[in-house]
Amino acid sequence: MSLSNEEIIEAISSKTLVEVMELVKAMEEKFGVSAAAPVAVAAGPAAAAAAPAEEQTEFTVVLKATGEKKVEVIKVVRAITGLGLKEAKDLVEGAPKEVKEGVSKDEAEKFKKDLEAAGATAELK
């Protein structure tokens, strides 16, 4: 039974973000690969020294701790990620966890501010 690419994409699009992440992890383990974006290897010490001087353009928002208002934090996580109630609750209860990856500095700071306003502790990486 061979599925076409369109059938596979359709099947994946009906899954939640958490289910897709679990699928990616299972594929990484099965095939011994990584879904991480490839990183260019620096050509010598001069190039390696210049790389850290670049300003970071993509940030990751990390939920460090939930605080006392867990329900409010879950609502904010749902708004940020688009996850369902159960997935957002699992993410919040599993803190520290990454909430959103690869966002601009302004967007990351807004998400951090929203999480902190809900009573959570958050950081940017």
Structure description:
With 125 residues, the protein is α+β, with helices and mostly antiparallel strands. The protein is built from six helices and three strands; from the N terminus they run H-H-H-E-H-H-E-H-E. It starts with a helix and ends with a strand. 17% of the residues are buried.
Low-confidence stretches: none
What portion of residues belong to β-strands?
Answer: 5-15%
- What is the CA-based Rg, rounded? 18 Å
Helix content: 40-55%
* Integer average pLDDT: 80
The sequence of SSEs as H and E is: HHHEHHEHE
How are the strands ordered across the major sheet? Answer: 2-1-3
Straight-line distance between termini: 43 Å
Number of helices: 6
Question: Overall 3D geometry?
Answer: globular
What structural class results from the helix and strand content?
alpha+beta
Largest sheet: 3 strands, antiparallel
The tally of beta strands, per DSSP, is 3
Which characteristics define this entry?
single chain; about 120 residues; three-stranded antiparallel beta sheet; 6 helices; about 50% helix; 3 strands; alpha+beta; globular
Brief overview:
It is built from six helices and three strands. By secondary structure, the protein is of the alpha+beta class. It has a three-stranded antiparallel sheet with strand order 2-1-3, covered by helices on one side.
Write the layout of secondary structure elements.
Blueprint: H1 5-13, H2 17-31, H3 45-50, E1 59-65, H4 70-81, H5 85-93, E2 97-103, H6 105-117, E3 121-124
Antiparallel strand pairs: 1-2, 1-3
